[in-house]
Design goal:
The protein has about 80 residues and is an alpha+beta fold. Helix content is about 20%, strand content about 40%. The protein has a four-stranded antiparallel beta sheet with strand order 1-2-3-4. It starts with a helix and ends in a 5-residue tail after the last helix.
């Protein structure tokens, strides 16, 4: 993933935020699932906050579970 693709997913008006990320052991990150027009795909982006700033930790093409959550409007 590129920063552009991740930022497009974050800017998707239909994006879904899971806070905390259900896969996070520490509970310190959140998962955003959104659409990237550049990638033409749903993207999962992991964000965390540190000292008042938000950082992108990782991003990848959404897997089936995240696609389903997005289609259902966030209902798990």
């Amino acid at each position: 993933m590129t920063p552009i693709e991740a930022n497009e997913a974050l800017g998707d008006p239909e994006c879904i935020t899971l806070d905390p990320d259900p896969a996070s052991i520490s509970g310190a990150s959140r998962r955003i699932i959104g659409y990237s027009t550049t990638a033409q795909a749903l993207i999962t982006v992991i964000l965390t906050d540190f000292e008042g700033a938000t950082y992108g930790v990782n991003a990848w093409r959404a897997k089936d579970r995240d696609k389903r959550i997005y289609r259902q409007g966030g209902g798990i």
